[in-house]
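From the pipeline queue, job 12 of 40. The input is one protein chain; the requested action is below.

Action: predict structure.
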Amino acid sequence: MRTDTAAERFPAAAPIAPGRVPLAGHAARLHRDPLRFVRELRRHGPVTRIYIGPRPVHFVTSPDIVRELLTSQARSFDKGAMFDALRGPLGDGLITASGDRHLRHRRLVQPAFHHARIARYADVMSERSLARAAAWKPGTTIDLVPQIHRLTLDTLLATLFADPQDPELHTAVEGWLSVKYHSMRLALSPIDAWAERIPLLPGWRPPDAGPLRRLVAVQERIIGAYRATGRDRGDLLSMLLLTGGPDDALTDAEVTDELITLFLAGTGTVSASLAWALYEISRRPDVQRRLHDELDTALAGRAPGFDDLPALVRTRQVLTEALRLHPPSWLLMRRALRPVTLGGVRLAPGAEVFFSPYALHRDPELYDDPDRFDPERWPRQSAVRAPRHTYLPFGAGTRLCVGEDFAWTELTLALAAFLGQRRLTPADSTPVRPLVGTVLRPDRLPLTAHARPS
């Protein structure tokens, strides 16, 4: 029996997705309903071309080719054009860095997220989560989106800095966060793509770098105070300053870039994930009841801690499923460094490649009834070690989020804190809409808290 090769099964040039219009390409459809757009691309082939203005992009929809991109062909790719645009407002840390800089920074940053360090940070995570949850009185309704944002920011600042009570720091971080949420849409804009070809495009303005400069200035002052003492204060900043030793330490500028990366990942990613998990739980009394049973058994009324994580299996299943349906990193990209064939499609150096964890997570060939929230689809062990390349809430390959274990710990402890003493229900029937930016987050989350029977 004859077996076709990959080159014979797929064309050497990928087909262009329908709906391309002059000047804008597919950008209007991508902006109008991006989640629907990326899901529908699988209809047109495993690798499909779309256009962001004049910029061609090869969009991979096949999980097998995504695996190829992230493993056997990984060395042939680096970050793409979108991250060139993001580097201005977001700095040049792990999220936007490329090549040798990325590899070196990843190696130096990893010790800050060692198991033993996360165990120390867990006390802060639990304490802050319990305090925020305790302020929500039974019988009251609140929009949890801003509450969760403040919780994750407070927790991050308390783990980054031994003394986070610096008013200039809070103001600078909030100012930067207010503009960074729009960075993804800017990077996917046809205007940005055209500006690469026409530098003096009338009316075009790059992102305002003022908020980033102000945040960097505050961080440099704090770093200077840390350098003056040279001691380990037990926080993330101390680890960033001490890593690498005298011959390979991060410079002050590199440390500020990595702090900004942590602000981005530690606020947007974690807060969106926690909000989506609480959204799904509030709509399913059966799921919530099983979580309450687990928390009652594992914690017996005491505060959750790092040592409790292995016992919170159902909690992990719920989070795993929430991150499948609502992955914060909904769109990822690469750029070809050299001539390469990907899934039978020939790519020239500089070719842009996109793939969507959101679309993969809702692919009916990978997940039965993919739009249904079903924590039970994850057996005990696979909820902890979900399959790579088909489950990508925190990225994959060499770009896997270095703080993934930090995020899982914070999410689990926060969920336990919010559910330990209360039952949650939706406050109204108005649909919660996803906001698509640098992360995928809910626009609002009005929930009512109810006291649980003692």
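Job complete. The first helix runs from residue 6 to 9.
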